[in-house]
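Researcher: Here's the sequence for the chain we discussed earlier.
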Amino acid sequence: MMRGAIRALVPAVLATAVLSGCSSSAGTDADAGKNGDTDPVAAAESTAAEKGAPLGGAGSACELPVTFDLAADWKPESVEVEPGSEFAALGQQGSATMVCEIDAKPAGNIGYIRVWQGKGASTTPRAALEDFVAGDRNASEAAYEETEAGRVPAAEVTYTVSGELLDEPRKERAFAVATPKGPVVVHLGGLDSQEHEEMLPAYELAKKSLELG
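Model: Thanks. This is the structure I predict for it:
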């Protein structure tokens, strides 16, 4: 069975419909950024997230090939995907399998940081990301760059996701690093672009504090 799979992946669909009232305020903030009054992404990245417990090591909620710091109040949960189960596709994107999700709701946002395990110790971070993005048929406008996660060579992608249930395209991003157990992809989504931008400090904390486990 895949623990939490439906709860993990369906909110991006259901919450869009249930919480559609958020769209007006999100649009206001987005419009402000477009008019040059503020740069939401720059503002989020310049605000450090309060550090919570580390994740990834032995005994943590998700034991991973990497470790990184969680933002305070974000709740991690291990995900197990049973191949061939009726929900297995929800935990698969490209050749990567979801192994951990970190819920932002206790911290006041609607969205997740999800950790995906890829295949092949020789797979480069860029190749892992290209495969991951290609696994989402609604993804477009992908922009890649070489970077670092902590002191580990990494690649990062920003892109947009569109769909019938979305009022407007939604920003998403992910970074990947290579490990002896295969590439690890750390992905940030969100209910909409406003939620995504508000959660960026937690994503940046994970990226800056990452170490190979």
